[in-house]
Write a structure and sequence with these properties.
Length: 300
């Protein structure tokens, strides 16, 4: 279970889940098996989680390339620097070689259903990030149309939900409109595909960067870490849905006497096993196949 990496490369950044290394005009992004909840990295890893995040992102990047270019260059070990030959078992299946971009510090959230922080705001004033919704909606209800509800990225802690006007003031109205239009196009196409495969994408987030003023889709895309995935066959508005994402871990933690501050509690083996199964099931349903077999590393 890969919790961290230590490669003979210049370190670029380390997030809750990803370790990123600098290759001048490129980046090497490694999705570890770390899992976070309530802004805390848990002490236990979820086996195969990093492979699911990477391979599912690669699948969606290819599926959406007719809408927008993305930063992915390769997930093939043979395309990585030779000095990594001794680390192939760490990297296989969980690593992306990508173009380096000028990141736009906006979380581009698209919601197709009323859930999470959107529901909390709606209960107070009938809006989500300033978007007025019809009265009388209930939790988990499908919206008439998907809505764009951006957030400003935070260096630590929760990103801050804001209105579209705040984003337009921050980055310019033309670029803000482009982010909104592109994000909704991606959500429309991918959510219809997922629905046919038995998964509802309730909401998700996208990140973008610029290369010489060209908008590029970056980071991960439509994974169980960045999205709410619900089984379509069980969906009923007003009823808490099952999930194919890390909500299962959040639900377990919510049942503990924990103040949501570090250090996070350990996960029991049955929760780890069930979470792994959910991630693998999401990949299978969406792509129609199991994870590719590894040559060097752990079999999933």
């Amino acid at each position: 279970m890969l919790l961290e990496t230590n490669l003979p490369l210049k370190h670029y950044s380390r997030g809750k889940v990803r370790d990123i290394y600098d290759l001048d005009d490129k980046l090497l992004i490694i999705a570890t098996d770390r899992i976070s909840a309530f802004d805390c990295v848990l002490p236990d890893a979820i086996p195969c989680k990093g492979q699911v995040l990477t391979q599912l992102s690669a699948y969606w990047f290819d599926y959406t390339c007719d809408i927008i270019k993305n930063h992915l260059i390769s997930t093939n070990l043979g395309d990585f620097p030779d000095r990594l030959d001794g680390h192939l078992s760490e990297l296989e299946g969980r690593t992306m070689l990508v173009k380096k971009t000028e990141r736009i510090d906006v979380e581009c959230v698209v919601r197709g259903y009323l859930a999470g922080s959107g529901l909390s705001e709606y209960k107070v004033d009938g809006t989500v990030c300033g978007v007025r919704l019809p009265s009388g909606l209930v939790e988990y209800e499908k919206l008439d149309e998907p809505i764009f509800t951006p957030a400003i990225k935070a260096s630590s802690g929760h990103d801050m939900n804001v209105s579209f006007d705040v984003i337009a003031d921050k980055i310019g109205s033309e670029l803000a409109e482009k982010l909104k239009e592109t994000s909704i196009k991606i959500y429309d196409k991918t959510s219809k595909h997922a629905q046919k495969r038995g998964i509802i994408i309730a909401d998700t987030k996208f990140e973008y960067g610029l290369i010489e003023d060209e908008l590029i889709l970056i980071d991960e895309i439509l994974t169980p870490d960045s999205s709410r995935f619900w089984p379509a066959q069980d969906y009923c508005k007003g009823v808490s849905p099952k999930s194919f994402d890390k909500q299962y871990v959040r639900d377990y933690l919510n049942g503990l006497e924990w103040d949501k501050k570090p250090p996070a509690p350990k996960l029991p083996q049955d929760v780890i096993k069930k979470t792994k199964e959910k991630y693998l099931k999401a990949y299978l349903l969406i792509t129609g196949s199991n994870l590719p077999k590894n040559i060097y590393g752990m079999k999933c």
